[in-house]
Amino acid sequence: MEIELTRIDKSADVYAVRKAVALVLHSPDLFDPNDPDNHGRRPNFEIEMGKSPAGRIHNGKAILRVATKLGRKLLRWNYDSEENGIVVNGEALRIFNGHRGVSKNVEKIIEKALYIDPDQDKLRKQIEDKAREVRLRIAKLQFGVWYKPSNSPGKGRSFSIEYERDFIQKSAAYVYVVYEHKFIHIDVSTSTQPPPVRPNVSLRSASAGRRKTTTKSSSSSQISES
Fold it and tell me: Which of 65, 93, 126 lies at the terminal end of a domain, its last residue?
């Protein structure tokens, strides 16, 4: 269900609101770890901040999406006493029943996904934003295969270049990491024809920052950076 939150301090971000909501929803008044419906996990929820036309981070309102049973308990708990409330930056919020359900996708996330502490989520967001700021210029892009020469005395392998393209003379290419989706993205620009043609190639990686080593037909790629 959806619950409306109003009178949110204009300086409070979504993480401050999530933290205040979690303190209430995970408190002994509303959360029973022995309840079989909880499956031994703290309940998850979603916060959507209202957009401000004045350029602020929000308009002082938000929508709380939560499981229906827990949402109704929250509304009753808030109604029972003036001392029961969600407090953000020292101010108690006003809470209303939005009288709206949630989509199947959101309902599934709320019921199945593990609750993530807002401080951890905020740190992850900062890492994602930092990763987007880093772009490395590519000098050459090479595709080929790793092999071990028959006459090689050691255990090392050599790289056989099957295709190579130079991105210094007539074009430009950059590589950066999309942290949240765990893949390496190559952005290619061709400067010979205006406007620039910008085909995108994404190389999915097992972990952020690791170079892709295998593709179809056991081929691999090397990226040299200028």
Answer: 126
84 close to 77: Cβ distance less than 8 angstroms:
yes
pTM score:
0.66
Report the C-alpha gap between 150 and 152 in whole angstroms.
6
Helix, strand, coil shares of the chain, percent, nearest 5, are 25, 30, 45
Alpha-carbon span 63 to 97, nearest angstrom: 10
Domain that holds residue 139: 134-225
Does residue 120 share a domain with residue 12?
yes
Per-residue pLDDT reduced to its tens digit, 59-107 = 999 999 999 999 999 999 999 999 999 999 999 999 999 998 888 888 8
Would you say 7 and 60 are in contact if contact means Cβ atoms under 8 Å apart? yes
For the sheet with 46-49, list strands across it. Answer: 46-49, 62-65, 2-6, 94-97
Pairing of strands 46-49, 87-88: unpaired
